[in-house]
Amino acid sequence: MKFFIDTANLDQIKEAQDLGVLDGVTTNPSLMAKEGITGKENIINHYKKICEIVTGDVSAEVISTDYEGIIKEGEELAKLHDQIIVKVPMIKDGVKAIKYFSDNNIKTNCTLVFSAGQALLAAKAGATYVSPFIGRLDDISTDGLNLIAEIRMIYDNYGFNTQILAASVRHTMHVIDCAKIGADVMTGPLSSIEGLLRHPLTDIGLEKFLADYKKGN
Ligand code: E4P
Predict the structure, then answer these.
(1) Full-model pTM
(2) Fewest CB within 10 A of the end CB: N or C in the chain?
(3) Which spans of this chain does the record mark as coiled coil (predicted)?
(4) How many angstroms separate the CA atoms of 141 and 174, rounded?
(5) Closest Cα partner for 71 from 109, 123, 110, 106?
(6) What is the set of active-site residues?
């Protein structure tokens, strides 16, 4: 299972990279704005900085919503760095663009996916990754994890190569549940990764081991 961090915060990206388990980064315009990164030039420079920190895939989202615009923007983004994955929204022109990118060896992440039908379409178009937003489904009383399970079944039925990137992961249990279901990738905040580390019995056990060691010295 790949771990991506879902942020544009360079300190958090570095921290996750230092842990040694990071496989990539996802960003979106909202995450960029949260870090105060606005305007095309600043956003482009920020992608370059992220690519210098991590060794894995870095999703960079297009802003255009028409076919020609998505193609132009996606080709520009893909040229920035070989780690860039062009993130395209699940809209009609987006699906057409994903097919074009796939035919032209440009990797894509189909974003804003909320149904199994959308995920099937993304795979048919040749998306490298599909991003079902599980947290946002949970927010509206719909089972986000069930969507991951449905997509896993459909992709396995037909041997689609599109990787299921569980997005909008909000906490550590989401990560564990996605791993059980068989999501290929999860993207979440640093806290969702660091939460995997913690167990009170580990802390109590370590404290006792260290105390007992001191007794003998
Ligand atoms: C995915 O790539 C998105 O950036 C992200 O996971 C959205 O998460 P949110 O619902 O917490 O904003």
Answers:
(1) 0.96
(2) C
(3) none
(4) 15
(5) 106
(6) 87
